[in-house]
From TrEMBL:
<protein>
    <submittedName>
        <fullName>Uncharacterized protein</fullName>
    </submittedName>
</protein>
<feature type="compositionally biased region" description="Polar residues">
    <location>
        <begin position="1"/>
        <end position="16"/>
    </location>
</feature>
<feature type="region of interest" description="Disordered">
    <location>
        <begin position="1"/>
        <end position="20"/>
    </location>
</feature>
Amino acid sequence: MESKSLSQVTQTQNARLNEGDYYPSKDMLAEMVKQFQAPVTRRAIRPGFIARTDGFDIDQTIEFLETLPDKQGVLSRLLSVSDLTENLYKRFSENPTSLYNWYPAVKRALYESDTELKTPDTKAMRLPIELAQFIRLEYHKTSQADKDLFNRFIFDQFKLEDDKTYFIKTGTFSSKFQFANAKCSEPREMGEYFQVINNFAMEVGAGQTVDLVVREYIEDVENNPTIYNGMPLRTEFRAFVDCEKNELIGVVPYWHPIVMKRALKVGLSESIQQDYQTYLRHEDKLTAEYNAHLSHVRKEIECILPNLHLSGQYSIDIMKNGDDFYVIDLALMSESALTELL
């Protein structure tokens, strides 16, 4: 593919954003919130209303924890479960791991580079603070009226289609271990899916985002077995890169045998034990395909790095589906699993 100038790319990207990707402005979403009518005061979704669950001074606590030398674990957990304030909302909006923040750079890099890598069609939305707080409330404690309102909001704002299957996630959490929630075939109830996913993300310390993502669902063309409640066990690669040095640090199998056996073997539930047996039967194929395509993946990652305008070190996840290779996720390397395998 012939390289293009920055101005040409910017024009093309803007056109594509208008045609496909969805990045609504804060003003657009704020205007949408103003249209909400909630005559019942116990309703959680109301214009200008943040449905707090406690009176905890999270801003002051964060300031204190930031001064501690060994703060990361406690701080991450606290941030994930706390009610939103304006300061916390701003902090989450700036989270570099959120797809809302890195996806435009990835899409541009793929467009500018002579690469075979793809990325799923993607729509991202940054929720206004009222709705970002709503999906932090426990699902079973919110009214059906609010759920219905949020369902309609999501369906309309993402311009969803009936009878279509989507892959959904928050800006930072894909809920792969509960894949039945991530694969949504009921678009008119997608708001409730998002609330359940975000509730679980908060429980595991991954609730540091105010963004939602809807992607095309990539149907498995290889007839792979499934684990984690319906997730196709496809060959995946995790590459670690330094974007400032344009350097590929290394690549490891996403479904690494040591990690997978350690994680699944000790699972107590019957479903996890079934997943363990499924993985063991599929391990040889995963390993063979990883080794067969490793050099190709390395070459494609090195190809896009000069055009990937991000700061710092990241992990990049690549999913194989037939002859296609998709960039499906990024995260800060410092917050990524599998670095020990390098």
